[in-house]
Design a protein that fits this description.
two-stranded antiparallel sheet, 8 helices, about 180 residues, globular, 2 strands
Length: about 180
């Protein structure tokens, strides 16, 4: 049970970091959206948010079809690439477990391999080598925490499931709704 609780805490920490980072990086847009909808009631805001989520999913489907991605067990991840959730998951995982040094290069390398894995329905190693002058060594852009794209798929799937399970929890839902109501005011 202790292990599951630790995993839950890590996922909650990642989710909270995603929220903060997204708002901080898009503060002007955040304030514009917030002011645009400040006079709406909670039902109206929920309806608009539902429509937005449908738009994101529809966009992911259109993009996937336009790119002629074959349907298989990994294509579900495209919507999370497009909405930025996968990128945030990968970057925050790197920052937490490896530190921020070279995090951008590692993130780009992982996402690039992840997209290739989806398109080709294959598993790719995330261990890359580079000749720094002393023979081949582990490349600085190779992550330590993920060994291959299948591991990223599985951990990201667990992360998404954990977030959904947490959201279904009555106590969490009550706290989350209170938090939203307080932030909206």
């Amino acid at each position: 049970m202790k292990k599951e609780e630790n995993i839950r805490k890590v996922f909650l920490t990642l989710a909270d970091a995603f929220d903060r980072e997204t708002i901080e990086n898009n503060m002007e847009l955040f304030n514009k959206i917030k002011s645009e909808f400040e006079n709406y009631n909670l039902d109206e805001k929920s309806f608009i948010f539902q429509k937005y989520q449908m738009f994101v999913i529809d966009y992911a489907i259109l993009f996937k079809k336009a790119m002629e991605v074959p349907e298989h067990k990994k294509t579900w991840a495209y919507q999370f690439i497009l909405n930025g959730d996968l990128k945030k998951f990968v970057r925050n995982s790197i920052d937490i477990y490896e530190g921020p040094c070279c995090g951008g290069d590692k993130e780009s390398f992982i996402i690039e391999k992840y997209i290739k894995a989806i398109r080709e329905d294959k598993n790719y190693s995330l261990h890359d080598e580079y000749d720094y002058g002393n023979g081949l060594e582990k490349a600085y852009w190779s992550p330590i925490i993920f060994k291959d794209t299948d591991e990223v798929f599985e951990l990201f799937k667990l992360y998404i499931k954990e977030i959904r399970d947490i959201a279904k929890n009555e106590t969490f839902s009550k706290i989350f709704n209170e938090k939203i109501n307080n932030e909206v005011k």
